[in-house]
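ARCHIVE ENTRY
Sequence with per-residue tokens
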Amino acid sequence: MAEAGSKLSGAQRAAIFLLGVGEESAASIMRHMEPREVQRVGEAMASLSGVSDDQLTEVLGEFNTKAGAINPLGLGASDFAQRVMIQALGEEKARSMLSKVMPGKAKTRGIEALKWMDAGSVADLIVEEHPQIIAIVLASLEEEQAAEVLGELPQQMRSDLVLRIARLEMIDPAAMEELDKVLEKQLGRASKTPPRAVNGMTSAAAIMNNVNADLEASVMDELRESDAETTEKIAELMFVFDDLMALDDRGMQRLIREISVDTLVIALKGVDDELQEKFFGNMSSRAADMLREDLEAKGPMKLAEVEAAQKEILATAKQLADEGELMLGKGGDDFV
């Protein structure tokens, strides 16, 4: 039986709340949690041996939720935790997290553990490894994290790594075995992994889309010197703020509805007049005039702030494209 309500930790209270609202709602909530938060709540959820009506009522009351006459919970809490985590995180990440909170319930590849580490720690872990191993690691991470890790690695390595990623087509099992051995020393776990097809060009472009402008410029310049053809293929797949010019009016209007005015003002600082007019032309006259006034009144902005606002808008555009709400393209081709 779980402890008395007053003695419950924050993680235990959160776990009881998730147990009380059901798998679907719990999964939706956990999607918005940080990895460390998921781990703490998952540990608490798995450790609960039983939850009384009073405890559940108290916890749900804290979340302004009516408890009602709910039967004691707790039986099958570990299975519940597994199902919720798989719904919330997907099977790969769920297995990684479950191996931490419920040993023996799931087995994870070392590469999955890296996805729950900060960029600096990942860079420290792999910096001394062979460049091909590092390239495989970066190609296996989510684009945003891979971009952050790339930024943490020595400058002289970056262009070579991006080129290696772009040339990846199939991740050799031997390379994955070597990677597992490296991670085993640090993380204490490794497993054999079958060959995995990858689209290296797409991975390289996605990573470059997430680095800052200075890093992008330096890496792409170095890449052009070593392999101009591959560099141009990467550039064609990259989607940048100026590419929003290719949106049709309907798509631009749909995008504008999802963007806050503050974000748009910052993002439009420093872009050329043609792109600004593209936005103005898809607003009402009143809204366009107000946006022009806001832009004129806005003082100098840090480049990093402008880039962050532009990346936020690009992320929104990509999400809308994935949902079929608009079409993104370069030179008339759909962005895939």
Summary: The first helix runs from residue 10 to 21. The chain is about 65% helix and 0% strand. The radius of gyration is 24 Å. The CA atoms of residues 60 and 67 lie 6 Å apart.
